[in-house]
Prior knowledge:
Blueprint: H1 16-29, H2 36-49, E1 53-57, H3 60-70, E2 78-82, H4 88-95, E3 99-103, H5 114-120, E4 125-131, H6 140-150, E5 153-157, E6 165-166, E7 169-170, E8 177-181, E9 195-199, H7 202-211, H8 233-242, H9 246-262, E10 278-279, E11 285-288, H10 292-301, H11 331-339, E12 340-343, H12 351-364
Parallel strand pairs: 2-3, 2-4, 4-5, 5-8
Antiparallel strand pairs: 1-9, 6-7, 6-10, 8-9, 11-12
Bound molecules: pyridoxal-5'-phosphate (PLP).
Pyridoxal-5'-phosphate (PLP) binds next to helix 3 and helix 4.
Amino acid sequence: MPVPLMDIRGQYAHLLDEVKRAACDVIDSGRFILGPNVRALEEEVAEAVGAHHAVAVANGTDAIVLALEALMVGPGDEVICPSHTFYATAEAVARAGAQPVFADIDPATFNVDPAAVEAAVTDRTRAIVAVHLCGQPADLAALREIADRHGLALVEDAAQAYGARYDGRPVGTFGDAATLSFFPSKNLPAMGDGGMVLARDGDVADRVRMLRFHGSRDKRVFEHVGMNSRLDEMQAAIMRVLLPHVQGWNEARRAAAARYADLGLGELVELPREARCTTHVYHLFVVRAAERDVLASRLRDAGIGAVPYYSTPLHLQPVFRSLGYRPGDLPDTERAARESLALPMFPTLDEASQREVVAAVRAAAPAAA
Ligand SMILES: Cc1ncc(COP(=O)(O)O)c(C=O)c1O
């Protein structure tokens, strides 16, 4: 029986009538841009996370660009970020005009290592972008302390971690700003693109609000070179139906992760580890396997979703060649790139399917060939 890597529709199949009603209401209203649903979603997400301010934008990449720009980060500045993340993290830093400086990861969590961040600080550093990779919070206490000591802005890229907690508090409330993606596979999904900036400070939120709207408050007076980056009403209305269910979906993801351990997957591959103080929400269930590529291709042949995340680290991508990084510069990142493999994970993943996955890994493990 094939088991997909993710099943986006399964989690909300029972909500589709409600979703369609919400979408039809928007069509009937004729209000498509920055209307009541966007405003309400901003308030509902801010309340659920405990953020002071929330500004909805077109996607999670723009959210990072706009957060950095609103924090006055730009040309001539360095921004420290991980290399083991989706490209958008560093792409957004460069798009904001700053230079990404890549820091190595803690091999236990795949998240940026605070000691490596500290070592990368120079007198041009203006910000740290910490990614909560796969749904596991980065070491926020240590990163906040480093940011405060050096006078840097801390941005949480929480694209993969809506609902995750650090020290019992939702991620998104530790940084000067935090960014969310509502890409359809994310823990809080839209049915299209979407994103959001959470901010601690009203002035930062106000600048994001202007920057997403051509640098204007009213489309007559233009105060900044902004962009057009708005979440649309249709997505906001759909997401307001889904939002109340995300906590339950995250609990189901956590239960599925625990079940993989109970079923013995840890005897075959190295399981993800939850760091102290963190509540992981398993956007992705990423294991380590020494012969990852062999395992991945055998699993795929067996009909099991198995995808390497992320097999070429950002510091070695062609786009960043001019930064001068070489293979070996970030050894833990490069090992993670060779060994990481995402296995099926979604809220409706059931025990029978997980038994299939574990059996397939057992049969496919190179040592057992
Ligand atoms: C860590 C991370 N940052 C940023 C993004 C960008 O989000 P979006 O696809 O909504 O632009 C993603 C999306 O995959 C992501 O995983």
